[in-house]
Amino acid sequence: MGELKRVFKTFVAYLKRPDLYPELGRKILKNTVNRNNAFKGKEKTNSWARSKAISQKEAVFNLFGIDASTFKTQYKDVLDKAAQKEKECPIKMGGPGALELIYYACEFSEGKNVVETGVAYGWSSLASLLSLEKRNGTLYSSDMPYLGQNGDQYVGYVVPEDLKKYWKLFRFADKESLPKIFNENQVFDVVHYDSDKSYNGMFWAYNQLYTHLRSGGVFISDDIGDNSAYQDFCEKNDIDTTIVEIDDKYVGVFIK
C-alpha cells in the first residue's frame, strides 16, 4: 500500500506541472511498453567493464597525469562539512561517487563550462565547482524535480553558498533541460552524466552531450553497468574508454 500511495502522490504531482507532461508520458512508456529497456545488454557490459576496470586513482593518473591523493587533504574542511550536511539531511539521495575524477577532469581541461545531469545532494556539483571557481567558470546542471518526495529543497544540499554563484540549475528532465542549457552555452570542457538510467535515455543523452563537448574535453558517465548504452556508444564512435570501479559500480571516462 505504501508503494501505491507513493506512485499516486507522484502522479498527482506531475499533473500539477504541465511543463513536465512530456516526461510523464516518457515514464509511462518506460514502465509499460519499454519496461525491459533499462537493463538492455547489462550482462554483456558488466563482463566488458569488469575486464577493463581500474581504480579512480589510476584513472586520474593515466588520463590526466595527476596524483589524485591530494584532493581529500586539500579540501578536507569543505568535504567534512558536506558530509555532515548529508548526514543531517532527512531525505536519502545519492552519495559522493567519483569526486576526484570529476575535479581533476575540470583541472586537466582548465574547465570554464561544465554540464552535468543528475544532482541529488550535489556531491558531483561540489567537485566541479571547487575547480570552476578558480577560473570564474559555470556549472550547468540538469536535475528532475523530486516529485511527491518533498525532496526538492535538498537538491544540491551539500554545495556551500559561496560556490552557488558559479552554478545554474535547470529543474526539468534531461530532454527539456539540455536544450535549454545548450541554448545558453554551446561548447563544454567537461560533461558528466548521472541521471536517467534507461538504455534509451542514456544513449540519447550521450549523443547530445558528446556533440557539445569540445575536442580535448572530458566525458564522464556514472552507472555504465546498468545496461550496454555506454559500451554501445563507445563502440559506435570508435572511442577508447577508461573504466573505473567505485563501490562495486562502473564509471566510464574518456578524453574526446
Features:
single chain; 256 residues; alpha/beta; seven-stranded mixed β-sheet
Description:
- The chain is of the alpha/beta class and 256 residues long.
- The chain starts with a helix and ends with a strand.
- Helix 8 links the parallel strand 1 and strand 2.
- It has a 7-stranded mixed beta sheet, sandwiched between helices.
- The longest helix is centred in the N-terminal third of the chain and has 14 residues.
- The chain is globular and about 45 Å long.
- 44% of the residues lie in helices and 16% in strands.
- Helix 4 runs parallel beside helix 7 and helix 10 runs parallel beside helix 11.
Inertia-based shape: globular
Coarse structural class = alpha/beta
Percent in strands: 15-25%
CA radius of gyration is: 18 Å
Major sheet strand order: 3-2-1-4-5-7-6
SSE arrangement:
Layout: H1 2-15, H2 21-30, H3 42-52, H4 56-64, H5 71-74, H6 76-88, H7 99-108, E1 113-117, H8 123-132, E2 138-142, E3 167-170, H9 174-184, E4 188-193, H10 199-211, E5 213-221, H11 229-236, E6 242-246, E7 249-255
Short description:
By secondary structure, the protein is α/β, with parallel strands linked by helices. The protein is built from eleven helices and seven strands. Strands 3-2-1-4-5-7-6 form a seven-stranded mixed beta sheet, with helices on both faces.
